[in-house]
Specification:
Bound molecules: glutamine hydroxamate
Number of strands: 27
Largest sheet: 8 strands, antiparallel
Number of helices: 17
Helix content: 25-40%
Radius of gyration: 25 Å
Distance between the termini: 11 Å
């Protein structure tokens, strides 16, 4: 969520900061702000500029005012405390201090009362502003910025990634991390900081990731890091393999469409080295022979990947599997059986709830943990015993597409690894390998449905509600389809297991209700046909994505769109594509902000 960028250099850093914000804007985009200092003067005047809305508004204003400086911090916000407004936008200032912050300070109310009693005047409704005043109180008492931040972090409860500057010492920035990621970028005679390396790729490829509890002082020439116990530590800088143009939209109108079309390549990348000449190579998964059950934890789209995987893990590997939303798991007292493999799934690897659930499970004694994640070096990856990287490449569209299908491909690999203990393991694994080998080609072929779906989308644009139906491993795909439509077109959509219809949701069916059905030709298709008839009999308007050989044809109130035939095993991945394209085109017709839908943000690093 919120994006942070900071820089200390000899050159003017304003464009570096603004470009960093543009690259992070998909993380949060209700307001943006920047503060710069001219390190040539001590003290340097603190120049702050904030704007409601997109980074472009800030960038225009910065150009107009000729803002410049060698040291600076910048932020793009996704509000948690206080409405989106200029006054609530970061940086927040107190005296000589300016601060940008990601996360939530949970004890902000008590701190605010304490500071107000001492005469500090608050200009915003945010939790963040207490940090600025707390640091200013320390520096006014004679503490240097580093010591002030070290003292202040002891007072803060909750999660933060923060960057602070002091106009009295404009040659340095101080950063602190607890629960919200920060990465330091190394240049020559200049250093940078950001909440994601993507922001800094135009200026460096050498990064060091801060660990939980770290505080660092960064100048042009040096980076000094201190751990939770204030001990100096080295966080090694490594060369990043993330592509520089990862944040470019290319010829596509939206990132989401680009990312939908990248799926054949993304899945090829997921399988690279893991599927060789039609044979699986599962070395990276290590020894899973002592795994008696699997507990999957995830949020949102990643949760839907987990629910799909449960069907695979139980039916193909014969291993018991439970799936739970991280925000629920972490606040109940789950009983985790011995020999459980804990699998976390997250695109960013920074999802706050998933990370907290992982930590809680470890505290409960879980010793085998696997992260399925798209971002190498992320917190989830660092804190798990094993990792299966999805290698989807940067995903910028807030509505997840290629991250989801690559997670599914990775989960099929995991299923193959878990099948190892079966007597017929080789046959099961070969079946998975054969199906996966066809996947990139099939996804490419399925993208050919785009035009037909674009036409279909026109019929949805005026609707206020929609139902999505699937059975078996297509039920979570229906859930994902409904989520996509909600996220970017703002049409209320719900998914049901088709067999559940008669237990309640049939009451919703009338001529106004579009019902989207995913119907591959599998062993449940006859049951599904009966469910389709139940809907037709009540006048519902059906849109059926059906396997070419499923023998479902268009009729009154029923549009059937054929989907290429595929192996049952990978049908959940293939049938995701038409649902992604449908929500994309409906959103385009409705004129919503496809890549940055209202109220949402990428990488949910707050609770
Ligand atoms: N709590 C702060 C920062 C919010 C945030 O990190 N969002 O991702 C605010 O509301 O400004």
């Amino acid at each position: 969520m919120c994006g942070i960028v900071g820089a200390v250099a000899q050159r003017d850093v304003i464009e570096i900061l603004l470009e960093g914000l543009r690259r992070l804007e998909y993380r949060g985009y209700d307001s943006a702000g920047v503060a710069v200092l001219d390190a040539a003067h001590q003290p340097a005047p603190l120049q702050r500029l904030r704007r409601l809305g997109k980074v472009q508004a800030l960038s225009d204003a910065a150009a107009e005012q000729g803002l410049a400086g060698g040291t600076g911090i910048a932020h793009t916000r996704w509000a948690t405390h206080g409405e989106p407004s200029e006054a609530n936008a970061h940086p927040h200032v107190s005296g000589d201090i300016a601060v940008v912050h990601n996360g939530i300070i949970e004890n902000h109310e008590g701190l605010r009362r304490e500071l107000q009693a001492e005469g500090f005047v608050f200009q915003s409704q945010t939790d963040t502003e207490v940090i600025a005043h707390l640091i200013a109180r320390e520096t006014a008492a004679g503490q240097p910025l580093l010591a002030a931040v070290k003292a202040v972090r002891k007072r803060l409860e909750g999660a933060y990634g923060m960057v602070a500057v002091n106009s009295q010492t404009p040659d340095r920035i101080v950063v602190a991390r607890s629960g919200s990621p920060l990465v330091i970028g190394y240049g020559i005679g200049e250093h940078f900081v950001a909440s994601d390396q993507l922001a800094l790729l135009p200026v460096t490829r050498r990064f060091a990731f801060l660990e939980e509890g770290d505080v660092a002082e960064i100048t042009r020439q040096s980076v000094e890091v201190f751990d939770l116990n204030d001990q100096p530590v080295v966080r090694e800088a490594r060369e990043s393999s993330v592509e520089h143009d990862a944040g470019d939209k290319g010829e596509y109108r939206h990132y989401m469409l680009k990312e939908i079309y990248e799926q054949p390549q993304a899945i090829t990348n997921t399988l690279e080295g893991r599927l060789l000449n039609g044979q699986l190579n599962l070395e990276a998964l290590g020894d899973l022979s002592d795994v008696d059950s699997v507990q999957i934890i995830a949020c949102g789209t990643s949760y839907h990947a987990g629910v799909t995987a449960r069907y695979w893990i139980e039916s193909l590997a014969g291993v018991a599997c439970n799936v739970e939303i991280a925000s629920e798991f972490r606040y109940r007292q789950p009983v985790i059986r011995p020999n459980t493999l804990l699998v976390t799934i997250s695109q960013s690897g920074e999802t706050a709830d998933t990370l907290a659930a992982l930590r809680q499970a470890r505290a409960q004694g879980i010793t085998k943990t696997l992260a399925i994640c798209n971002v190498p070096g992320s917190s989830l990856v660092r804190e798990s015993d094993m990792t299966l990287l999805t290698r989807a490449g940067a995903e910028i569209g807030v509505a997840s597409t290629k991250a989801f299908t690559t997670q599914l491909a990775a989960l099929l690999l995991l299923t193959a690894g878990l099948a190892e203990r079966r007597a017929d393991a080789a046959a099961v694994q070969q079946k998975i390998a054969n199906a996966l080998a066809t996947l990139p080609g099939l996804i490419q072929q399925t993208l050919g449905m785009n035009e037909a779906i674009e036409k279909l989308a026109e019929r949805f644009a005026e609707k206020h509600n929609a139902l999505f139906l699937g059975r078996g491993d297509q039920y979570p795909i229906a859930m994902e389809g409904a989520l996509k439509l909600k996220e970017i077109s703002y049409i209320h959509a719900e998914a049901y297991a088709a067999g559940e219809l008669k237990h309640g949701p049939l009451a919703l069916i009338d001529a106004e209700m579009p019902i989207v059905v995913v119907a591959p030709h599998n062993d449940l298709v006859e049951k599904l046909k009966s469910n389709i008839e139940e809907v037709r009999a009540r006048g519902g308007e059906l849109y059926v994505f059906a396997g070419e050989s499923a023998e479902i044809s268009s009729a009154d109130n029923m549009v059937v769109v054929p989907v290429p035939n595929c192996d049952d095993l990978i049908a959940p991945i293939v049938y995701t594509l038409p649902l992604q394209l449908l929500s994309y085109h409906v959103a385009v017709i409705k004129g919503t902000d496809v890549d940055q839908p209202r109220n949402l943000a990428k990488s949910v690093t707050v609770e």
